[in-house]
Amino acid sequence: MSTAMEMLDSCENNDLVDSSQHFKERAERNRQKALLLKKSKVLTHPYATSENGESIKGRSLKVQGQRVIDSGGGFLIEENDDLEEQLLKITTDPAPIIVDSPHCDECQEEFKDSYLLKTFDLPVCDKCRDSSGKHSLITKTEAKQEYLLKDCDLDKREPPLKCITRKNPHNSNWGEMKLYLHLQIEQRALEVWGSEENLLKEKESRDIKREGTKIKKFNKKIKQLRMQVRSSLYDKTTKASHTHNFGEDTYNEDDDTYTHTCISCGYEETYEKM
Question: What are the DSSP E strand ranges found in the chain?
Fold first, then answer.
């Protein structure tokens, strides 16, 4: 019984020794963490001062076994590196680019921003903007019809013309219409056709061709109507009782018709050849 008690006391003593050793190791770890935390606070405040009131900027420090120099700018430089070379590697935000303000094409005054400059790249201030006159808008369809321009002239030729989109006022379900600056459309037309005289000649030539096509279509419809009227007046009973035997055709230049006469009964018929 005494032997068992001795063994129990021995185990308790060993546990106490192990527990004491564990607390000592834990305390040492906490002390090391506190030292590291103190060093980190010093490094994160490069403009801090030492205990005697002197600045630690430029002082040599030892971090993780390596000697470094406090630059005073919030970062550390290796002691064996050139300080000036390291500072040149620091990147900062680029300085803002100062651009001269544009001048208005109308009043020649300097301005910062305007609707025409922002929308159509036209340097005209808002005071000189003439929405109902010089700076009016024109639809893409009107620009193509009035100035004989193609889609490539507006969107592909350099520089492409800027435009704005609006809902169709006639029907909101239709596609959006594109609006261009009338002044820029006129300038683009001069680039394409060379001069205003060339543009007018081309418009006249196309008008003449268009009128000629209309006249041809009209004459064709008239001939079709004449043929329909003459076929309705033809006496089918006479045709059934007698078969005409027409002779040679005679051409009438005045009304562009042909006439032939039946050899048997003398019936004369005038017609047009399609």
Answer: 60-63, 66-70, 76-78, 137-139, 164-166, 177-181, 250-252, 257-261, 268-271
